């Protein structure tokens, strides 16, 4: 497993070692440790807004985007996180920035592993798993 982390923002300090550690633990539990890569881009609202508009056809920034390429691919996916959006929404959920950042990171990783929240049943499963990982790892 190779985790490529690109921190292209200077808004907040991000514990890159912790990003790698949490990513590795979730991926090991979900899909195992084999010969694959994942890319994680930590950025700002302007950059994620461009991706959101281009790929999802939605206006404005979002907290996280996950692009799942398939678990049998060399690069299984990419996660893009907006530090600014996460910072803005953290108080709404009663979280510090750091808690919200890692909660959202886990959410993005689970999408790469094939989870989604389209149906109510899928949503319940994904968020229960997300909460479990967050409580275990954070």
TrEMBL record:
Free-text remark on how the cofactor is bound: Binds 1 zinc ion.
Gene3D superfamilies: Metalloproteases ('zincins'), catalytic domain (3.40.390.30)
Record-level GO BP terms: rRNA processing
InterPro entries referenced in this protein's UniProt entry, alphabetically: MetalPrtase_cat_dom_sf_prd (IPR023091), YbeY (IPR002036)
Principal EC category: hydrolase
Keyword list, A-Z: Cytoplasm, Endonuclease, Hydrolase, Metal-binding, Nuclease, Ribosome biogenesis, rRNA processing, Zinc
Annotated residues for binding of Zn(2+): 107, 111, 117
Enzyme Commission number(s) of this protein: 3.1.-.-
Pfam families recorded: YbeY
Cofactor: Zn(2+)
Presence of keyword NADP: no
GO CC annotations on file: cytoplasm
GO molecular function: metalloendopeptidase activity; RNA endonuclease activity; zinc ion binding
Chief location: cytoplasm
Location in or out of the cell: Cytoplasm
Described purpose of this protein according to its UniProt entry: Single strand-specific metallo-endoribonuclease involved in late-stage 70S ribosome quality control and in maturation of the 3' terminus of the 16S rRNA.
Similarity remark: Belongs to the endoribonuclease YbeY family.
PANTHER family registered for this protein in UniProt: ENDORIBONUCLEASE YBEY, CHLOROPLASTIC
Protein name: Endoribonuclease YbeY
Organism: Marinitoga hydrogenitolerans (strain DSM 16785 / JCM 12826 / AT1271)
Encoding gene (name): ybeY
